[in-house]
Design goal:
The protein has 603 residues and is α/β, with parallel strands linked by helices. It contains 20 helices and 15 strands. 42% of the residues are buried. The chain binds arginine. Arginine binds next to strand 12.
């Protein structure tokens, strides 16, 4: 289906043409003065120069054409879509749609809704996209910093998919760096007797991991702290990281167990967030790609030795700030974060031939990605058309404006954060006497997810934001629970209508022309659906979708408060409203699903 703005623009464009002006001047936009009109066209202002005429003369002529209605190709005239067209000095066209025309458009949307897309067209050319998000580090507990990547990445992936793109998500585990060396070093100090550390051992290693995930979560911070205080310890960890990267038998076997235990725990955590990855690759997955890649970079003359390390220059003349060379291998030959990222690009290019690779990480990694992307292009790891995009997000702060911490100043674990929100929400849901304990539990989790995700996604990703549980959990204002509350309200009206009029099939009811300003506003907001969906994707901006469902919820609630739907005696009117509610709910469901949460039946 065409976007409503395009449909109207065509009509206005045709009127420009009929009046003797360029058709493209007829571009219509949503009015920035809703008190004056619904849509506006500023084409006459632009045309004034081109035609050496006062803009109002052009606008007057176009308005006169629009008043005549639209000529069909067979010569008959179609009734005008506009209720009013005003030419306003110095040369604006202020437009209002006829309620019947708007309702007709929504009817098409409703009918097209059978596939769950509500008229959203498929892209002209489907792109193959890989989105790299989540990015947790093995053996370290998931903390709130990983929340944003997971939540934003998942929303972007679903947004792309809803828009008809071919996209897969890769978690890109941090599983090959120094933290692995640290964990191995500390485990060896504590358990030198483990067979993994016996260099003479040639048998098979045990099936069972000798540690739990909680053990690992204690070992890593301990080792990390010690390495900062003790230079020898640090050197040993570096050495062990390198030995691991060379796949020293015992270390590699132990590493596999660490991965096994960590990944099982990560899967559980991400499942709780309703975040799912198609690929569970990691830095280590490309270990074997590195040597060939490095050789080629050397052969082609891009990589050279500098202070013992192997580097690629990536500075450009136009750089405002210095972009340092990309270090490919350290002097001891060990791979770095950059190395594994480059090898991963090469590997993805070879395996998937993507049109686009998106990375969702903290924006403080911007320089890293600038270096990586430039090096990848320079060394020809990707074809020139492959787009590489870093979507950097801001910091999640506490109410004090500083990075979010636990009460005692530690790093808050994601699990703790989620259970805190669940608790807060449960207190609210429990106040509804109709809801039993078990349902309250389930519903609280569902609403808490919306609170958490909407609280994050409603902010422009690149900005820092304040994580405020109390605010996020409120049923009023720009929050996830408010959106769900609106959806629950619609569900309840629809259920009551069905109970009143058992025989009806809701999908048979047709939307009627708006009868009030509030109803028309709601209809107009609904008509913006596909444009919003497309733009949110184009701009990688889930916050646009949040703003849209907030508008839609507000518009629905204003309509609801001014309209007594269920007691309406005129059956047709009432049925029209029910059809409008069905569409509103359908659109809200499509949007919330993209954002990664859903509404219960009651709350
Ligand atoms: N593990 C990294 C971190 O915690 C994030 C990985 C992001 N993805 C990537 N391809 N570099 O910072």
């Amino acid at each position: 289906m065409e976007q409503l703005l395009d449909v109207i623009s065509e009509k206005v464009g045709a009127a420009f043409e009929a009046a003797g002006y360029d058709r493209t001047l007829g571009r219509v936009q949503i009015s920035n003065r809703p008190d004056l009109c619904e849509y506006q066209c500023n084409g006459a202002m632009a045309g004034a120069k081109q035609y050496h005429k006062a803009p109002f003369m052009i606008a007057d002529a176009v308005a006169a054409e629009l008043a005549k209605g639209e000529k069909r190709p067979d010569g008959t005239v179609e009734e005008s879509a506009f209720e009013s067209v005003e030419s306003v000095k110095p040369g604006f066209l202020n437009l209002r749609l006829k309620p019947a025309f708007l309702a007709g458009y929504l009817e098409q949307m409703r009918e097209a809704g059978a596939d769950g897309k509500w008229g959203l067209p498929a892209p002209e050319k489907k792109k193959k996209i890989i989105i790299d998000y989540g990015g947790p580090n093995v053996a370290k507990p998931l903390h709130v910093g990983h929340l944003r990547s997971a939540v934003i990445g998942e929303a972007l992936k679903r947004l792309a998919r809803y828009n008809g793109q071919d996209i897969i998500g890769d978690i890109h585990l941090g599983d090959w760096g120094l933290q692995m060396g640290l964990v191995i070093t500390e485990l060896r100090k504590r358990h030198p007797e483990w067979v993994y550390f016996d260099d003479n051992y040639t048998g098979a290693y045990p099936e069972e991991a000798p540690f739990t995930v909680s053990d690992l979560e204690e070992v890593y911070p301990f080792a990390s702290k010690r390495s900062k205080e003790d230079a020898d310890y640090y050197a040993e960890a570096m050495e062990n990281t390198h030995l691991l990267q060379e796949k020293k038998r015992g270390f590699y076997a132990l590493w596999q167990k660490i991965i096994e235990v960590s990944v099982a725990d990560l899967k559980k955590n991400y499942r709780n967030l309703d975040v799912e990855f198609e690929l569970w690759n990691g830095e280590a997955s490309v270990n074997d790609v590195i040597p060939g890649m490095v050789d080629k970079m050397k052969q082609d003359g891009f990589a050279y030795e500098s202070n013992g390390a192997l580097v690629v220059d990536v500075a450009e003349d136009t750089d405002a700030k210095e972009v340092p060379p990309c270090i490919i291998l350290k002097s001891d030959g060990a791979a770095l974060y950059t190395t594994t990222d480059l090898a991963t690009i090469l590997d993805r290019e070879n395996k998937y031939d993507p049109d686009e690779i998106l990375y969702v990480t903290d924006k403080r990694q911007a320089l890293h990605f600038t270096q990586v992307f430039r090096a990848a292009r320079k060394c020809g790891l990707v074809k020139p058309t492959t787009e590489l995009v870093h979507i950097g997000f801001g910091t999640m702060n506490g109410r004090d404006g500083k990075p979010f911490k636990t009460r005692d100043g530690g790093v808050m674990r994601l699990e703790t954060l989620i259970s805190d929100i669940d608790e807060e929400m449960k207190k609210k849901i429990e106040t509804n006497p109709e809801i039993g304990a078990e349902e309250a539990d389930r519903t609280a989790k569902q609403v808490a997810m919306a609170a958490l995700k909407y609280g994050d996604l409603s902010n422009q990703a690149s900005k820092d934001y304040v994580f405020d549980i109390e605010k996020f959990c409120s049923f009023e204002g720009d929050t996830g629970p408010y959106i769900l509350y609106t959806m629950v309200r619609i569900k309840s009206i629809l259920a009551k209508y069905k109970a009143q009029d058992g025989a009806v099939d809701l999908s048979e009811l047709r939307i009627g022309p708006a009868r009030s300003g509030a109803e028309k506003t709601l209809q107009e907001t609904l008509a913006r659906f596909s444009g919003t969906m497309q733009n949110s994707w184009k701009e990688y901006a889930p916050h646009r979708l949040c703003a849209y469902i907030y508008d839609l919820s507000n518009d629905f609630n204003s309509f609801y408060h001014g309209t007594r739907i269920l007691v309406e005696e005129d059956r047709e009117k009432k049925a029209g409203w029910i059809a409008l509610l069905t569409l509103t709910l359908g659109v809200l469901e499509a949007c919330t699903d993209v954002l990664g949460f859903s509404a219960p039946d009651r709350m």
